[in-house]
Amino acid sequence: MLNIENLHKTFGKNEVLKGIDMTIEAGEVVVIIGPSGSGKSTFLRCLNLLETPTDGKIIFEGTNLLDKGVNIDQLRQKMGMVFQSFNLFPHKTVLENITISPVKVKKEADAKAKAEAERLLDLVGLKDKSQAYPSSLSGGQQQRVAIARALAMNPDVMLFDEPTSALDPEMVGEVLAVMQGLANNGMTMVVVTHEMGFAREVADRVIFMDEGVIQEEGTPEQIFTNPENPRTQSFLNKVL
Ligand code: ADP
Ligand code: MG
């Protein structure tokens, strides 16, 4: 589904991504771990062109996204993104937050978008919150709405950038449970997280990134019980 070759990103003189190669198969759950500042967010943002890579290739469903003339809006519809901050529209209801893009961008009929939004709210466990405003919801509930909103565009891949890092500890589990459900249903996912339990249980593959390169990758079993790279070992010693 996604084939990334020799991806580079430089900000000024700061080379943040120093040649990333990665292949993501349909249905795969890839979890990226690594210290703060290692380039994880920049990498995810490059995938849907929120940042323009300096060099390399991102081949998504057969198209190199860095080719001239690629329709970025169409691409973004196929890649859902969930951030640490939920960024819901405060003056719109939960339902409106979810239907706005399908209606405005995809030109879906109101009734269809609404029915789909209700199905997605049920999926994330918020069936009864469709008429609520974001400010009346907990952080965990808002993040689940943000996931439903991303899913409403019917993406082929979901990118998560530390989706639980801004949450109070007691709300982390409910968001991870929704993500685990998506993974079980075959969604292709790239997840940056510090939740090592999630990585261990849900990831098909774990990638350890540091200083703008992939230092090590493998199954959760390999990475967590038998890391080979000293940097991986040292990182895991700090976080586990
Ligand atoms: P991580 O998500 O792993 O913590 P980031 O991708 O956010 O790391 O950041 C990696 C490096 O890139 C940091 O040194 C950061 O300061 C730099 N960086 C990220 N975004 C920008 C930007 N828009 N402009 C300049 N530097 C940036
Ligand atoms: Mg980050």
UniProtKB/TrEMBL annotation:
<keyword id="KW-0029">Amino-acid transport</keyword>
<dbReference type="Pfam" id="PF00005">
    <property type="entry name" value="ABC_tran"/>
</dbReference>
<dbReference type="GO" id="GO:0005886">
    <property type="term" value="C:plasma membrane"/>
</dbReference>
<dbReference type="InterPro" id="IPR027417">
    <property type="entry name" value="P-loop_NTPase"/>
</dbReference>
<dbReference type="InterPro" id="IPR017871">
    <property type="entry name" value="ABC_transporter-like_CS"/>
</dbReference>
<keyword id="KW-0813">Transport</keyword>
<dbReference type="InterPro" id="IPR050086">
    <property type="entry name" value="MetN_ABC_transporter-like"/>
</dbReference>
<keyword id="KW-0067">ATP-binding</keyword>
<dbReference type="InterPro" id="IPR030679">
    <property type="entry name" value="ABC_ATPase_HisP-typ"/>
</dbReference>
<dbReference type="InterPro" id="IPR003439">
    <property type="entry name" value="ABC_transporter-like_ATP-bd"/>
</dbReference>
<keyword id="KW-1003">Cell membrane</keyword>
<feature type="domain" description="ABC transporter">
    <location>
        <begin position="2"/>
        <end position="236"/>
    </location>
</feature>
<dbReference type="InterPro" id="IPR003593">
    <property type="entry name" value="AAA+_ATPase"/>
</dbReference>
<dbReference type="GO" id="GO:0005524">
    <property type="term" value="F:ATP binding"/>
</dbReference>
<comment type="similarity">
    <text>Belongs to the ABC transporter superfamily.</text>
</comment>
<protein>
    <submittedName>
        <fullName>Amino acid ABC transporter ATP-binding protein</fullName>
    </submittedName>
</protein>
<dbReference type="GO" id="GO:0015424">
    <property type="term" value="F:ABC-type amino acid transporter activity"/>
</dbReference>
<dbReference type="GO" id="GO:0016887">
    <property type="term" value="F:ATP hydrolysis activity"/>
</dbReference>
<keyword id="KW-0547">Nucleotide-binding</keyword>
<keyword id="KW-0472">Membrane</keyword>
